[in-house]
Structures are given as structure tokens and as C-alpha cells.
Design goal:
CATH topology: Peptide Deformylase
Radius of gyration: 17 Å
CATH class: Alpha Beta
Distance between the termini: 37 Å
Strand content: 25-35%
Number of strands: 7
Length: 189
């Protein structure tokens, strides 16, 4: 089932998400609905808070071999895409690399807004999978970036919170204006 994606400046996006006690049928159903919603948007990651559920749940679906745009020139060989859906319940980053990279990011909750964001190049994340089993993985490239972005959402941090106050205000004002225009009734003659 497609779920409505909340867009900024909605206050619900600033709520800190709570841990999931058990991965049961309802959580798996939410994970499936989130994947369907993310694909339809289209996007490569989605956190539960973006669909109004304040639980520590994230889905990501990226090409595991895809380097960041800033790393593409360094990629020597052409690799086949390997698009894998990851279900992360109660995800927690346990390690970050010292190497940091800047890369342009977008967000389904900030439609048509993009910004260069600095993040660690690699991370290790532990989480429960779709079956509730503990997992740990090292993420690099676009997968690392996507996981970090989505985990920010779980703590009420938006892409714009990583920008200067002026740039953040400009983007949020533009989104508020767009939302207001969508809600105004159409004038017919």
C-alpha cells in the first residue's frame, strides 16, 4: 500500500523515532509498504518517520556497486548493477571512517531540493533485519550515504539541518509556499 510522504516544514519530521520492541507482522507490513512507497516516489531510501510512523525503521534500495558522484572518476572498471533492498530495524552506526566526502543529496521530504553534504565515506551499521535477526554490515559509497541520510531522519535531523541557516530558511520558505499553493482552491471562471 502506498503511504503519504510527509514533506517539510511538517513538525512530525523533527520527532525522534522510538525503538521497535519486536519485528512482527505489523512491522513487516510497514517495511513492505515503505518499499512500495519509496519505489513509487521514486527514491532510494525512506525512514518510517517520513510516512508518519515514529519508529526506528529504514528501507534503502541502492546499487551496491554504485560509487558516489564524487568517486565516479576514480572508478576504474565498469561493474554490473546490484540493486538490493535493505530492511533496517533499530539501526545504529557503530563505526565511521575518518575519510569524509561531499556529495549532492536530495530527500523525498524536501521535494526538488538538493545540497552538497559532507559525511563519512564508510560506516558499519548494526540492525535487525526483516525477520528480526541481528545483523551488521559495512556500507560504502552510495549505500553508506543513503543509510546515514535515513538514520538522520530517525533522530529528527533533516538534510537542511546540515546547511547554513540562510540556505535552510530559503529552502523551507520555498517548500512552505509550495504547500500553501497546493492547498488553495483552484479559481475557475
Amino acid at each position: 500500500m502506498l503511504l503519504p510522504i510527509i514533506t517539510a516544514p511538517d513538525r512530525r519530521l523533527k520527532v525522534k523515532s522510538q525503538p521497535v520492541a519486536v519485528v512482527d507482522y505489523e512491522v513487516r507490513r510497514l517495511l513492505d509498504d515503505m518499499v512500495e512507497t519509496m519505489r513509487a516516489a521514486p527514491g532510494i531510501g525512506l525512514s518510517a518517520i517520513q510516512v508518519g510512523v515514529a519508529k526506528r525503521i529504514v528501507v534503502v534500495e541502492v546499487d551496491e556497486n554504485e560509487p558516489l558522484a564524487s568517486e565516479e572518476a576514480a572508478a576504474q572498471e565498469k561493474r554490473e548493477p546490484v540493486r538490493t533492498t535493505r530492511y533496517l530495524v533499530n539501526p545504529e552506526i557503530t563505526w565511521t571512517s575518518d575519510k569524509v566526502v561531499f556529495c549532492e543529496e536530495g530527500c523525498l521530504s524536501l521535494p526538488d531540493q538538493y545540497a552538497d553534504i559532507e559525511r563519512p565515506a564508510d560506516v558499519v551499521v548494526k540492525f535487525l533485519d526483516r525477520d528480526g535477526k541481528p545483523q551488521e554490515m559495512k556500507a560504502t559509497g552510495m549505500l553508506s550515504r543513503c543509510i546515514q541520510h535515513e538514520l538522520d531522519h530517525l533522530d529528527g535531523v533533516l538534510l537542511v539541518d546540515r546547511l547554513s541557516a540562510v540556505r535552510r530558511h530559503m529552502i523551507l520558505r520555498k517548500l512552505a509556499k509550495a504547500r500553501k499553493q497546493e492547498q488553495e482552491p483552484a479559481v475557475t471562471a
